[in-house]
C-alpha cells in the first residue's frame, strides 16, 4: 500500500554507505507512518461517517461531502421522538439499568473466584478454569429456547421483568470478568499486604487501606468490560425484552421511520452516535488498562 | 472476548508469592470462593443446556405436514434431529423454502463466513500488530482508533454498514469512481455475503491485532537483532522467528474468533436480514423458535455441538499446545488448555 518516497536529499559529508542506510531508515519510517495512518483511518472512518451523517439534514442523507455539511440537530430530536413508535429514550434507561445490575452481580460473584484462581491452590482448579473457559465459548443461541420456555413459565416475558435480560447477560459477563480480574489480581504486589501486616495493620486494614486502592483500577476496567458486554448484547435482548425492558440495541435495530420500508438513516446514525459516544469516551480514558485487560486473558493466560 | 485462563506470574517474576499463613486452609477457601461462580454458571448455562437437549427430544405441537392432523406433542425420538440433518419433515422431505430445508444453506454460509472472515482477520491483524509493534509517536491515538470498532455495539455496526452499503450510499459512490457498477449489498448473493464479512472484519480485526501484538511484545528484541546480524531476510525473520513465537497466542485468538463467527447473529440479522442467502445457523434457530421450540432446541443443540467440536479440534490439534500444561490436569479438562501454554511461552523468553 505504501510507495517508497525519496525525500531524503543527499547531504555532503556522508559516505555513500551512510547515505543508503539513512535513506532506507527513512523509507522504513515513512512506510511505518503510512501504515499507522491506514490503521487510524480503518478504525475511525466508518465511525466518523456515522457522526457526520447524524448531524446532516435528512434531505441530504446521501451527500458524500467528507466533512460536515447541512449541519442540524433534528436527527437527535427524531431519534428521541416517540411519534413513530420508537422509544429510544426509554431504551437508554433500560440498557443502563440492565448494564449496571449485570456488572454489579458479575463483579461481586467474579471477584471471589478471581481471587481464588489468582492466589490460591485448590483441588479442581483446572476443572473450574475449564468450566469458565467453556462458558465463554458457549453459543448464546443455545440458551434461547430453554430460557424462553423457563422465563415464559415464570411469567417473565411480559412487563418490566429486567431479570429476564440480566440473568443471561451475567452468563456472558461473568467469564469475561473472571479472566480479566484474575489477570489483574495475579499481577498485584501482594507482598505489600504482608508488609502492612508486619507494620501492625489488621488483616482488614491491610486489605482496605493497601490492597483495595491498588485493585481499584483493575476492578474499574473489568467493570467497564462487563458493562460494554451487557450494553452491546442483542441476540437474547431481541427475544426476551418487552416494551418496558427494550434495550438500545433492540431499539436501534427496530427503528422505524416516517415511511414503511424506508430506513431513517440519519436518525439511526444519531441514535447510534448517542449509544456509542459514551463508550468511546470511556475507552479513550481507560484505553491502556482496557487493552491490557483484554489481552491479559489471551496471552498471559 | 479475550481468551484463556489462569494467572501465572509475569515473565520477570520468579515464582508466585504466597503468604505462608494462607497455605493451610487454601484448598477449602479456594473452593468456597469459586462456589458462587460455579453455582451461577450451573444455573444459567449448564441447566439450560441440558434442558435444551431434553426439549429437543419432544415433539412440537402443531399440524403434521404429512397427515395434516393436529399433533399433541410427546416423545419425538430423534425426529427433530433428522428434521434438520436429513431434511425430513415427518415422513417426507422438507419442501423447499421451509425452515427445515434451509439447514444446509445456513450451515455452509456460516462456515463460509467463518473461514473467509477469520482468514482475512489473521492476515490483517498480523499486519496491524507488526505496524504497532514499533516505537512511534502517537501510540495513544492509534490504540484509541483501533479500539473504536471494538467498542461500537454490533447492532450499531450493522446499521452503520447498512447505511454505508445503501444503494445510494458511500460504498457504491466510491466504487463508481473506480468504474465498478453499484452493488445490491443486502440482497445480491455475493455482495450480501461480503457486506457481512467486511463489517465483521472491520469490527473484529483490531481485537485480533491487539491479541497478536501482546504476543509479539513478548518476543525479545535481541532475537531480531541476532537474526539481522546473521543476515536473515525479512521474510525469513517473519517465518522463522515471529510466526513460531506468536503461534500460540495467534491460535488462541483464531480459536475465539472462529467460535464467535460460528455463532454469528447480530450482523446478518440486522444488516441483510438473511437477504442473498445470508441466514446464519443462529438466525435459523431464532426463526424456528416462533414455529416450535422443540425443533429449535434440536437445532441449537446441533450448533452447540458444532462449536464444542471445533473448540476441541483447535485445542487438541491446532497449535494451542496441550503438551506444555501441567500433566496432572491434562486428562481432566482439555478446555483449560489454551491459556497455559501461552504462559509457558511467556515465561521462557528467548527460548
Number of helices of chain A: 12
Give the H and E element order of chain B.
Answer: HHEEHEEHHHHHHHHHHHH
The pLDDT mean of chain B sits at: 78
Look up the CATH topology of the largest domain in chain A: MetI-like fold
Which chains have the largest interface? A-B, 115 and 122 residues
Largest β sheet strand count, sense and barrel closure of chain A: none
Rg of chain A (CA only)? 26 Å
Name the CATH superfamily assignment of the domain at 107-291 and 338-347 in chain B.
MetI-like
Percent helix range of chain B: 55-70%
- Highest-level CATH class of the largest domain in chain A: Mainly Alpha
DSSP summary, beta strand count of chain B: 4
Order of strands across the biggest sheet of chain B? 1-2
Ranges of chain B where pLDDT stays below 50 over 5 or more residues in a row are: 1-22, 321-351
Q: Please, what is the average pLDDT of chain A?
A: 84
Secondary-structure element pattern of chain A, one letter each: HHHHHHHHHHHH
By DSSP, the count of extended strands of chain A is: 0
Strand portion of chain A, in percent?
Answer: under 5%
Task: Offer a few descriptive terms.
heterodimer, A: about 300 residues, MetI-like fold, 2 domains, B: about 350 residues, two-stranded antiparallel sheet, globular, disordered N terminus, disordered C terminus
